């Protein structure tokens, strides 16, 4: 399965286009395919796709499983996705082929395939490095096939560059969860020494959010349910843990967990249920910022107008990150600042991961090993 770039780089002509590729790319590969809305994913062999002129073909070694992949399978969102669909958008691997226009990614380079698979690069959002807002963006594991396959296509301009000294299994969750929470913390405008409430702290995004928040010098109040997640949050460096399943008054408990009792300066909403989206404005500090990131099906943000006005509260959304955010989030990781727990299972186990995720039983992230 591995490629050896040093003895490769023949030019091969496929149909009308030229593809630079290594020798060892097979015709068929293992993948997890959603064939109908609601799933389950079907583990089967499918053909390996060929990159277009501006694309690369990445041999995915590891892929994280994000709750977004479960939303995609279930059809939770008012956004069309392709079917049949190969999910996945936290893929770390090695470039094994590239289109003729690709100049700045080499065969053998270690790259990440993230949610933003490609964008037009020409609209006013792309011009301002707001490519997640591009109306023509392609989304890995949603509008185009993603990383739950051994060979995945991505636009060369958008693949994440992964440094040589970084482990491909541990970096995989950074490619969505890490980038997203890093961006969310920046969007909150929070400053070192201030306090952030992380709602859904025990999940994939939440575990990484704690590490980025810690690296930024923030006080962390983690909110999630159960003792396993409490133990993980304490180990990741949270200053307080509020158990939403056990607490009689989450609002009071979150406020009480801040040093002066006035509430956190920012709230990152990462949960996959609606209630915390309607609670956060009550406990955020006056002049504080509530950042909505989690995407529970059919949910609404709700806040009392009077309190929001007289307490000068900001409520906003935050959506993945751009190429610069990607490079910065990876650099935090490379420097050893981000250590979030993950469990590795073979690609064939995806359906079991979805079951645990649906039940809220995953502390941290699951990473699929695509060599097994
Ligand atoms: O760009 C974006 N905005 C973006 C990027 C990536 C992911 C958004 N997301 C979305 C996903 O689609 C999903 O809706 O973020 C959400 C969280 O993704 P995840 O971290 O991958 O999910 P998870 O690992 O299942 O963690 C969710 C956690 O929320 C907790 C659960 O216990 C779990 O640990 N939780 C729930 I459900 N209700 C809660 C509550 N009331 C809660 N935690 C606190 N209070
Ligand atoms: Zn664009
Ligand atoms: Zn994701």
TrEMBL record:
CDD domains: CAD3. One of its GO terms (molecular function) is zinc ion binding. Pfam families: ADH_N (PF08240), ADH_zinc_N (PF00107). InterPro entries: ADH-like_C (IPR013149), ADH-like_N (IPR013154), ADH_Zn_CS (IPR002328), ER (IPR020843), GroES-like_sf (IPR011032), NAD(P)-bd_dom_sf (IPR036291). SUPFAM superfamilies: GroES-like, NAD(P)-binding Rossmann-fold domains. Its EC number is 1.1.1.1. Residues 38-368 form the Enoyl reductase (ER) domain. This is alcohol dehydrogenase. It comes from Exidia glandulosa HHB12029.
